[in-house]
Specification:
With 128 residues, this protein is mostly helical. It has six helices and no strands.
Length: 128
């Protein structure tokens, strides 16, 4: 393989990584139905669970313990927030050439929940 071919392969891998990371972050942070939970509301619910555990029957205790574990995981995950701005910047740089090479249409990007303003910034239009 020539040096230019190896460089092109490396560039393609990097573009694919940038696109994948951004799409995964979008998927992980998609809006959920209902009222948003804040750190305060999660902590309030954890305190309520602790109060209920004292007098809970064994089956209810099991469910409360699981809910407590889920809420603690949710709090811990909130501390590891993904920097969407950084991922979006890399995506904007990579998405145009990646999409052309792979034949990805504007509609496919939109169905993957990529915002139209991000696509516009990446140079991807409806006619592409």
């Amino acid at each position: 393989m020539s040096v230019s071919h190896k460089a092109a392969l490396a560039e393609g891998r990097e573009q694919g990584r940038a696109v994948r990371r951004y799409l995964e972050a979008l998927e992980a942070h998609k809006p959920k139905r209902g009222r948003k939970r804040t750190t305060e509301t999660v902590e309030r619910r954890l305190r309520a669970i602790e109060d209920k555990l004292v007098n809970a029957d064994p089956l209810s205790r099991l469910q409360l313990v699981q809910e407590r574990m889920d809420l603690q995981s949710e709090l811990a995950a909130g501390d590891n927030a993904v920097n969407l701005v950084e991922l979006e910047t890399a995506f904007v740089k990579a998405a145009g050439p990646y999409g052309k090479r792979k034949g990805i249409t504007y509609a496919a990007w939109r169905e993957a929940r990529v915002d139209p303003s991000v696509l516009r910034e990446a140079g991807i239009g409806r006619g592409d």
